[in-house]
Design brief:
- This protein is of the alpha+beta class.
- The protein folds into three domains: about 100 residues, no CATH class; about 90 residues, Carboxypeptidase-like, regulatory domain (Immunoglobulin-like), CATH 2.60.40; about 130 residues, Sandwich (Immunoglobulin-like).
- Helix content is about 15%, strand content about 35%.
- A hairpin with a 5-residue loop joins strand 7 and strand 8.
- The termini are far apart.
């Protein structure tokens, strides 16, 4: 039997049919796997990097909202959240103030950042970016910053200018129930805004316009007080946003207009007693006026071109049609309100004569009387009427 030896080409053909790989083919497969692995790892790394940037961005935004509040929190159509600045009227000195009252400020109502129950309060995660680096904060610029991956730092400014946060304006008009401006009442109206650092007080002008500057953003209470013999008080809350001029008007329930008018040249000292004076008023209103009291807003003696404060005190008051209406051991002078008992009623288009008896140098006890010629009076009756006159010799 003759032995048959296979040729080289036949061996190659059988190996190919058996599914074998050449070295070049194996190297090619390994190269492709390496390339695909590199692409996959790079995609995973980029996704991880984006996630870290996203997490850090959220942390920075949360810090910014904790400092200046969340403008999306609305109640009754008004913003209600102003964060740390809204409570304290300033920026935090450090990020730590957002979770701890480090300055023992009574206006601090934090924490302004929520931290986990098991979180390390000495070095909480909200202070660190996704790479574990501290988030940097400057209270001088209102800037928050993360170093990021070292190549692309992240910077966020709470505002373009700190004045937008701390130096806003509130203004408006003060009117009465008939939309009249206060006129001569303007200096008797106090407009007080309660602020974290200290209250701000202004007065309207005669047209009723008032303006408050350097107001920090936040929700603040405004109290408007009319300091007349019949006082009124109004309270409102105003929401002051960043970089705004907030308008807040007030309207009193009573009229500013004086229903009583002084009868010109009717104020004189009594001939037999210069320490007592009398004067007439006229009811110009179309209604009866009921007077409960009169306030001695000011009593000044005129000396040359100056008007120095002059302390004198009235013993009692007489209304011509009512007899004695005020009199007690207490005397009334600058800033005092004398009650009428019984009350004084003045009909429409009617006159009334008031007599102030025995002005003395002291408010109580024995005291010398004082001549009341050339004395300037500013009186405010309980209905809101203001009377000004200067006593002259008859």
């Amino acid at each position: 039997m003759k032995l048959k030896i296979p040729t080289l080409s036949a061996c190659r053909h059988r190996r190919t049919q058996a599914g074998g790989f050449t070295l070049i083919e194996l190297l090619l497969v390994l190269l492709i796997i390496g390339v695909l692995s590199g692409v996959a790892l790079r995609a995973i790394d980029m996704t991880r990097e984006r996630t870290m940037y996203s997490d850090t961005t959220k942390k920075i935004y949360d810090l910014a909202k904790a400092i200046s509040g969340n403008p999306d929190l609305i109640a009754d159509g008004k913003r209600v959240d102003y964060g740390f600045i809204g409570d304290l009227g300033r920026l935090p000195l450090t990020i730590n103030e957002l979770i701890r009252n480090t300055e023992n400020d009574t206006n601090w109502h934090g924490p302004y950042i929520k931290i986990g129950f098991l979180e390390d309060t000495l070095n909480p995660s909200y202070k660190l970016d996704a790479w574990g680096n501290p988030i940097e904060y400057s209270n001088e610029t209102g800037m928050l910053q993360s170093r990021g991956n070292g190549r692309q730092p992240m910077t966020y400014k709470i505002t373009d200018s700190l004045s937008f946060l701390l130096n806003n304006r509130v203004s408006g008009l003060i009117t009465d129930n008939e939309n009249n401006p206060p006129g001569s009442f303007s200096n008797l109206i106090d407009i007080v805004m309660n602020l974290p650092e200290s209250d701000t007080t202004v007065h309207p002008n005669r047209s009723g316009y008032y303006q408050m500057d350097d107001i920090p953003m936040g929700r603040h209470q405004i109290r408007v007080v009319k300091r007349t013999a019949s006082p009124e008080s109004l309270i409102k809350w105003v929401s002051v946003a960043s970089k705004t001029n907030t308008i807040q008007d007030f309207r009193f329930a009573r009229s500013f207009q004086s229903k009583l008018q002084y009868v010109d040249k009717s104020a004189h000292p009594m001939l037999n007693d210069l320490s007592s004076i009398y004067f007439d008023v006229f009811n110009v209103a179309g209604e009866t006026i009921n007077l409960q009291s009169v306030r001695f807003q000011s009593i000044d003696r005129l000396i040359g071109d100056t008007v120095p404060l002059y302390h004198v005190f009235c013993e009692s008051i007489i209304a011509k049609n009512f007899g004695y209406v005020s009199g007690s051991l207490i005397r009334y002078g600058n800033g005092n309100t004398a009650p009428f008992a019984p009350s004084v009623t003045i009909a429409p288009s009617a006159f009334e004569t008031f007599t102030f008896l025995n002005f003395r140098k002291d408010s109580i006890g024995p005291s010398d009387t004082t001549a009341m010629d050339s004395v300037k009076f500013n009186l405010v009756f309980s209905d809101g009427s203001i009377i000004n006159f200067i006593t002259t010799q008859p």
